[in-house]
Amino acid sequence: MCGHTYHRNKIVKAQNKVYWRCEDRDCGAYIHTTLSNVYLSNNETPHIHEPNMDDVFIQQFKAQVIKRVRSELVTPGVIHSEELAKANMSPSAMANLPIAQSMRKSML
Ligand SMILES: [Zn+2]
Fold it and tell me: Gene3D superfamilies in the record, alphabetically (predicted)?
């Protein structure tokens, strides 16, 4: 979310609540969601580090590819490379990008 990655910390089924903590263990930022991943609140502790813009970019890229795969009759591989050609991506984001093959699995 917003360039920050959270790890699931605790699930409280009775409250329909999931506690997520920032992947940076030195960082005290938490968020709460429902069990179905609907954002509820955060603990208002700011992150002690910058968001990872590569992550933001990769999330957007994935969302765009998945959206097109669902609405167009083009194979995921084609869409993936078309979007890659359009994207003005930093080399580090590019290096972390999921390949079409692995994305296909997550889309099925
Ligand atoms: Zn953080």
Answer: 2.20.25.240
Q: What angle do CA 26, 29, 30 make, to 5 degrees?
A: 125
Cα 39 to Cα 51: distance, rounded to the nearest angstrom: 18
CA of 105 to the centre of ligand 1 (A): 29
Identify the DSSP state of 74: S
How far, in Å, from the CA of 85 to the mean position of ligand 1?
31
Report how far ligand 1's centroid is from the alpha carbon of 7 (Å).
11
Q: Tell me how far apart the alpha carbons of residues 16 and 35 are, in angstroms, rounded to a whole number.
A: 5
Each of the 108 residues of the chain gets a pLDDT tens digit; together they read 567 889 999 999 999 999 999 988 999 999 999 999 899 999 999 999 988 888 888 888 989 999 999 999 888 889 888 988 888 777 777 777 777 666 666 655
Instruction: State pTM to two decimals.
Output: 0.54
Task: Give CA–CA dist 93/22, Å, rounded.
Answer: 20
